[in-house]
Specification:
By secondary structure, the protein is mostly beta strands. 14% of the residues lie in helices and 48% in strands. The radius of gyration is 23 Å and the shape is elongated.
Length: 219
């Protein structure tokens, strides 16, 4: 007995087969691979923190015990950011684009200024303890803008600071943590850093740092 399939049915079977094949290929070529956060490439973050006065990034990362107490915590920052994972490579590394906006303030200096930044992060999450506490680290390169230079920046270098120095380089290392069963929601600590890169921008040396903590929700 021969099974007769109407022409419409044959067409439906062909379309279904092609669609299934495309889904498999798309899954195999998905740029985020088998990462636990691959299914949620976009995110929104809220973050806030305090200034560290005239202390530079090397003080914060390498010699925290040598930090100068003057100016610590006198300024503050609050902001939001949106990001999207771009591509994952070598299994544990990925690139992530981020855009953010916030507000800096230092009431004792009558300083209040909006802020914005755009950056690309290089991140890594291949730590052996991730089955207990998922951990990732990252560092950025990008641009940071404020409407008015923070007080700590205007007194940083010996040279005059040009008005155009409101736009500076954004280099912001961070470490993030999440639960293995809920990797898409992260708690992160970040040094919110902007600087002229030792004269790379505007032929002058200045910069400022905020130590921030934030929550990231990938959806």
């Amino acid at each position: 007995m021969r099974l007769r399939i109407p022409s419409v049915g044959k067409a439906a079977i062909i379309v279904a087969a092609c669609t299934s094949s495309d889904v498999v290929l798309a899954g195999e070529n998905y740029p985020l691979g088998s990462s636990p956060i691959a299914g949620t490439p976009g995110s929104i973050s809220i973050l806030g923190g305090v200034s560290v006065g005239d202390n530079n990034m090397s003080d914060l990362l390498v010699h925290p015990g040598d930090m100068d107490d003057e100016g610590l915590g006198e300024g503050g920052f609050a902001g939001v950011a949106v990001s999207r994972q771009l591509v994952r490579f070598w299994q544990y590394w990925w690139l992530e684009a981020e855009m953010g906006a916030g507000f800096r303030f230092e009431p004792s200096q009558d300083y209040y200024s909006p802020e914005a930044w755009a950056a690309i992060y290089l991140k890594f999450d291949g730590f052996p303890w991730n089955d207990m506490l998922r951990t990732s680290v990252g560092i950025s390169t990008g641009l940071n803008w404020v409407s008015e230079l923070p007080p700590s920046e205007t007194g940083y270098g010996e040279d005059d600071i040009p008005d155009s120095a409101v736009l500076q380089h954004y280099l912001s290392p961070e470490i993030a943590f999440s639960l293995p069963d809920n990797p898409q929601d992260e708690l992160f600590v970040r040094i919110h850093h902007r600087s002229t890169g030792y004269g790379l921008f505007w032929n002058t040396s200045t910069g400022s740092n905020m130590v921030t903590i934030g929550l990231r929700f990938r959806r």
